[in-house]
Amino acid sequence: MAPLHICTMMPDPEWNMNPQSTQVSFPYGGDMAIYYTKWWRPGDTITVHFLGGNAYVRTMVEHYARLWLEHANLQLDFVQNSDAYIRISFKTGGSWSYVGTNCRKVNKNDSTMNFGWFTDQTRAEEFSETVLHDFGHVLGCVHEHQNPAAEKVVKWNKPAVYTYYKNEVGWPKDKVDRNVIDFYARDKTQHSSFDPKSIMLYEIPVGLTIDGYSTSPNQVLSETDKAFIAGTYP
Length: 234
Description:
The protein is α/β, with parallel strands linked by helices. It has helices at about 55-65, 125-140, 160-170, 175-180, 225-230, and strands spanning about 5-10, 35, 45-50, 75-80, 85-90, 95, 115, 190. Helix 1 crosses helix 2 (about 125-140). It starts with 6 loop residues before the first strand and ends with a helix.
């Protein structure tokens, strides 16, 4: 069985957990969710710099990242200057990204995004799924399964979820909570109804919900992803 490849969202100090609620007090909302205080301004140019990676991998990352721009009034400028908003490393391990303008808080010597498994043998579908997801985070999008609207659809079997992610990727309980189970607060996200086709959704395997609900892997932008990001960045 192929190893589970999964992208994580780097936490922000402003996102405070509320253990007394089924929601977290994450930094409002119906199919996709975006953390509205982390938006860029429509028309902004987001500079991007590669910290490593060979020419093929860089070309594939840039290609799939630019697909978002077909639907958003933003620009991506891939530059040689390391003083860029988005600094992409390729360190072995997981893939992750900061959300939206949180990248401005990161030390200039550190990366703001990492792709931990890309090689010359990586399939195009894997590049598409991973790059679109993580550049969705760059544009301010958060995980679709944590969309406040998902709470009525995705009813997690928590013990099964904790076991699954511990066995597959070694995640402790708090990391599973932050990236999978906890829902964002409605007053901190702009969201639509839950979209099972969103690129920002983790696949939900059979057995991880109490009612058998499951989804398939998403590797392209859904129609809702396109419409939502176009409305966010007109």
